C-alpha cells in the first residue's frame, strides 16, 4: 500500500472536477471585467487568476500580476496582500518555489505592517508547506509553530486545525508517528468548522496508515472501516476503491484470507469502473501476496504477471515496479521455479538502481531548489537592507539640516546672552560660594547643638524622675512617723541633689563622680528599705575612673530596677553588686542581684506599670549607639546558672 499513489489519485480527480466547474466561472468573470473599475477590477483579476490556476498557470500568474499592479495603483492594501498571497500559491503549485517564497515574504511584510493577522497566519502555514515540499523539514516545522504561536499569543479566533494537520503530515514524513498522531488528534480537538465529519475521516485515514506502517493492523482496520462507512454515505467511489484496497491489505496481514480477497475484488471492480490506472496495480499486488501466503502459486503468478503488465503501461513508478518484481521473485522461488525467480530478482535490482538514481536526481533537484531559495532570500534581505539604508540616509540628511538650522539660531541667541551674563555670573558665583561656605559652617554648628540639646533633654528628663522617686521615699518615711530615718534620708538626698545641681551644666560626668552619685543613691534606697539589703561596689584596677567621662546617671535606672523589682520581691538575704571594668573601647558596668530574677510575674508587673526612667534610659542608650555597632545592654536571668537573680551588663563607649 503506497500513500503516494493514494494522494496522487485523489489530487488528479480533484483537479479534473475543478477544471470543469471553473470554465463557466472564467467566462462570467471576463464579461464582468469589461465594465469594472477600481477595487472591483482588482477582485475580478484575482478571481480569474484563481480560476486559471488548475488549467493555465501562465494566465493565472498574468492575471495575478494585473491584480497586484492595479491594487498598488489605487493604494488598495487589502487587494495587494491578497494578490501577493495568490501569486505565492500559484508559483508553489508550478514548483517554482523561489518565486513562491518571494511573493509569500512580501505578503507577510505588508500584512505585518497592517496587522492583518488572518493573512499572517495563512502565509505562515503556506511557507510551512513550501519548505516541506523542498525537503527543509526543520524550517517547515518552525513556520507551522509560528502559526500556532501567533493565534495563541494574541487570543485570535482563527481556525488552526489545518496547521496541526500539516504538522501531522510533516511528523509522519520525518519518521515521528507518535507526534504525527498527537497533531492529528489536536486538529480534531480544536476544529469548529462546518465539515467536521470530513476532517475526522481524513484524519482517521492518516492515522490508520500510520498504524498500518507500525504493523498495528487491527487498529488500522477499525479506522479504515469507519472511513469506508462515511465514503458510502458520500457516494465517494474513489475513496471507496482505495478504502477496499486498504481494508484488504489489513485482512491479509491479519491472516483472514476470505475477507481480504472479498475486499480486493470490490476494490478491483471500482478501479476498473473508474479507470483508476494507478490503483489497479496496487490491488493486483495485494491479490498476488494473498495467493502466495495461501500457497496458491498458480493464482499468485497470474496476479503477479497482471501487476507487472499494468505497471509497464505507467510512466515512472519505479518503486511499485521494484516491489512487483520482488513479489514475483518470492512467488517463483516458493514454487521452485528458480530460473524465472532469478530473472525477476535481476529486474528487482535494476529497478532498485533506477529508483536510487531517481531519488538522487530528486535530492539534487531539492538541493538546487533550496539553494535558489537561499539565494533569493539573501537577495530579498540585501534589497531590504539597501532600501532601509537609503531611507535612513535620507532621514538623517533631513534631520541634520533641521538640526543645523536650529543649532545656528540657538548659537546666535546664546552668544548674545552669554557675554552679558558672563560678568554677572562671576560675581554671583563668588557670592554663592561665600554663602554656601557660611551655610555649611552653620549647618555643622546646628547639628552639634542639636546633638547636645538632645542629650541635655534626655538628662533633664532623667533628673526629675530621680528626684521624684527620692521625694516619694522621704514622704513615705515622714508618713510612717520615722523622723530619724527621714532626717538621715533627707540629709543624704540634699547632698546628692547638690552634686546633681553642681553638674547640671554638664551632660557627662567623670566616671569617679558618677560612681559617687550612684553610691549615695544606693545608700538612700538602703535607708528607704530599712537596710533590708546589702551592696558592694567593685572598681577593677585596669580602669582609670578619673580618665573617662560617662553620661550622667545612665546606670541609675538599672540599679533601681534591681532593687525594686528584684531584691524587694524576695524573702531572705538580699545583696546587690555593682562593678566597673575596662575592656578595650568600652567601660563595662555589671549590676547583679540575687533577687527573684526575670519571672513571668515580674515581667507582667513591669509591662503593666512601665518605668518612665527606663524608657528615658533606653533613648539615652540608643543615642550612644552611634559610637558603637555592638549591643550595649544585655540582661541575663541567673536562674539558668543554678542560682536566682538578674545580671545586667552595660557597655559604655570610652569615646
Question: What does the model show?
Answer:
The chain has 655 residues and is an alpha+beta fold. 75% of the residues lie in helices and 6% in strands. It has helices spanning 3-33, 38-52, 57-73, 77-93, 97-113, 117-133, 137-153, 161-173, 177-190, 196-213, 217-234, 237-254, 257-274, 279-293, 297-312, 318-334, 338-479, 483-502, 511-528, 556-567, 600-608, 612-624; strands spanning 508-510, 534-539, 549-551, 575-583, 586-593, 633-637, 646-653. A 5-stranded mixed beta sheet has the order 2-4-5-7-6, with helices on one face. Helix 2 (38-52) packs parallel to helix 4. The chain is elongated, with a radius of gyration of 52 Å.
Features:
two-stranded antiparallel sheet; alpha+beta; five-stranded mixed sheet; 655 residues; elongated
Brief rundown of the structure:
The protein is α+β, with helices and mostly antiparallel strands and 655 residues long.
Explain the layout of strands and helices.
Layout: H1 3-33, H2 38-52, H3 57-73, H4 77-93, H5 97-113, H6 117-133, H7 137-153, H8 161-173, H9 177-190, H10 196-213, H11 217-234, H12 237-254, H13 257-274, H14 279-293, H15 297-312, H16 318-334, H17 338-479, H18 483-502, E1 508-510, H19 511-528, E2 534-539, E3 549-551, H20 556-567, E4 575-583, E5 586-593, H21 600-608, H22 612-624, E6 633-637, E7 646-653
Parallel strand pairs: 2-4
Antiparallel strand pairs: 1-3, 4-5, 5-7, 6-7
Helix pairs in contact: 1-2, 2-3, 2-4, 3-4, 4-5, 4-6, 5-6, 5-17, 6-7, 6-8, 7-8, 8-9, 9-10, 10-11, 11-12, 12-13, 12-14, 13-14, 14-15, 14-16, 15-16, 16-17, 17-18, 17-22, 18-19, 19-20
Amino acid at each position: 500500500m503506497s500513500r503516494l499513489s493514494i494522494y496522487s489519485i485523489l489530487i488528479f480527480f480533484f483537479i479534473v472536477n475543478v477544471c470543469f466547474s471553473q470554465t463557466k466561472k472564467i467566462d462570467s468573470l471576463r464579461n464582468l471585467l469589461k465594465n469594472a473599475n477600481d477595487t472591483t477590477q482588482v477582485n475580478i483579476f484575482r478571481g480569474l487568476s484563481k480560476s486559471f490556476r488548475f488549467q493555465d498557470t501562465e494566465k493565472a500568474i498574468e492575471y495575478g500580476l494585473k491584480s497586484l499592479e492595479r491594487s498598488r495603483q489605487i493604494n488598495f492594501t487589502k487587494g495587494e496582500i491578497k494578490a501577493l498571497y495568490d501569486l505565492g500559491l500559484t508559483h508553489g503549485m508550478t514548483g517554482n518555489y523561489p518565486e513562491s517564497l518571494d511573493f509569500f515574504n512580501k505578503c507577510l511584510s505588508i500584512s505585518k505592517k497592517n496587522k492583518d493577522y488572518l493573512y499572517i497566519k495563512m502565509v505562515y502555514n503556506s511557507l510551512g508547506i513550501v519548505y516541506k515540499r523542498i525537503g527543509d523539514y526543520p524550517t517547515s516545522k518552525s513556520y507551522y509553530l509560528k502559526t500556532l504561536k501567533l493565534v495563541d499569543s494574541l487570543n485570535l479566533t482563527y481556525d488552526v486545525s489545518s496547521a496541526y494537520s500539516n504538522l501531522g503530515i510533516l511528523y509522519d514524513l520525518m519518521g515521528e508517528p507518535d507526534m504525527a498522531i498527537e497533531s492529528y488528534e489536536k486538529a480534531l480537538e480544536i476544529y469548529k468548522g462546518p465539515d467536521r465529519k470530513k476532517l475526522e475521516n481524513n484524519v482517521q485515514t492518516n492515522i490508520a496508515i500510520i498504524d498500518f506502517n507500525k504493523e498495528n493492523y487491527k487498529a488500522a482496520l477499525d479506522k479504515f472501516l469507519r472511513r469506508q462507512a462515511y465514503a458510502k454515505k458520500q457516494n465517494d467511489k474513489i475513496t471507496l476503491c482505495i478504502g477496499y484496497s486498504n481494508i484488504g491489505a489489513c485482512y491479509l496481514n491479519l491472516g483472514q484470507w476470505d475477507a481480504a480477497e472479498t475486499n480486493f475484488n470490490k476494490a478491483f471492480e471500482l478501479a476498473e469502473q473508474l479507470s483508476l490506472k494507478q490503483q489497479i496495480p496496487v490491488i493486483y499486488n495485494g491479490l498476488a501476496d494473498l495467493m502466495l501466503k495461501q500457497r496458491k502459486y498458480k493464482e499468485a503468478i497470474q496476479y503477479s504477471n497482471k501487476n507487472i503488465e499494468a505497471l509497464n503501461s505507467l510512466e515512472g513508478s519505479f518503486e511499485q515496479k521494484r516491489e512487483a518484481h520482488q513479489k514475483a521473485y518470492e512467488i517463483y522461488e516458493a514454487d521452485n521455479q528458480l530460473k524465472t525467480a532469478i530473472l525477476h530478482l535481476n529486474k528487482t535490482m535494476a529497478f532498485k538502481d533506477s529508483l536510487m538514481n531517481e531519488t538522487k536526481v530528486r535530492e539534487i533537484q531539492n538541493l538546487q531548489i533550496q539553494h535558489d531559495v537561499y539565494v533569493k532570500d539573501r537577495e530579498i534581505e540585501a534589497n531590504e537592507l539597501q532600501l532601509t539604508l537609503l531611507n535612513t540616509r535620507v532621514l538623517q540628511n533631513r534631520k541634520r539640516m533641521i538640526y543645523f538650522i536650529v543649532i545656528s539660531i540657538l548659537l546666535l541667541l546664546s552668544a548674545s546672552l552669554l557675554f552679558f551674563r558672563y560678568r554677572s555670573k562671576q560675581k554671583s558665583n563668588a557670592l554663592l560660594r561665600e554663602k554656601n561656605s557660611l551655610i555649611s559652617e552653620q549647618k555643622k554648628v546646628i547639628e552639634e547643638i542639636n546633638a547636645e540639646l538632645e542629650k541635655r533633654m534626655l538628662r533633664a528628663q532623667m533628673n526629675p524622675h530621680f528626684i521624684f522617686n527620692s521625694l516619694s521615699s522621704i514622704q513615705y518615711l515622714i508618713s510612717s512617723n520615722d523622723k530619724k530615718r527621714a532626717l538621715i534620708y533627707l540629709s543624704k538626698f540634699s547632698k546628692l541633689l547638690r552634686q546633681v545641681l553642681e553638674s547640671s551644666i554638664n551632660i557627662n560626668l567623670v566616671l569617679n563622680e558618677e560612681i559617687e552619685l550612684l553610691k549615695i543613691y544606693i545608700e538612700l534606697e538602703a535607708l528607704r528599705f530599712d537596710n533590708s539589703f546589702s551592696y558592694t561596689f567593685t572598681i577593677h584596677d585596669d580602669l582609670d575612673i578619673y580618665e573617662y567621662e560617662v553620661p550622667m546617671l545612665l546606670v541609675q535606672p538599672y540599679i533601681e530596677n534591681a532593687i525594686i523589682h528584684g531584691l524587694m520581691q524576695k524573702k531572705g538575704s538580699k545583696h546587690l553588686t555593682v562593678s566597673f571594668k575596662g575592656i578595650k573601647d568600652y567601660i563595662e558596668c555589671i549590676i547583679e542581684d540575687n533577687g527573684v530574677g526575670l519571672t513571668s510575674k515580674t515581667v507582667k508587673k513591669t509591662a503593666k506599670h512601665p518605668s518612665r526612667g527606663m524608657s528615658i534610659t533606653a533613648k539615652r542608650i540608643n543615642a550612644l549607639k552611634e559610637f558603637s555597632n555592638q549591643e550595649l545592654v544585655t540582661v541575663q536571668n541567673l536562674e539558668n546558672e543554678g542560682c536566682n537573680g538578674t545580671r545586667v551588663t552595660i557597655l559604655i563607649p570610652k569615646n
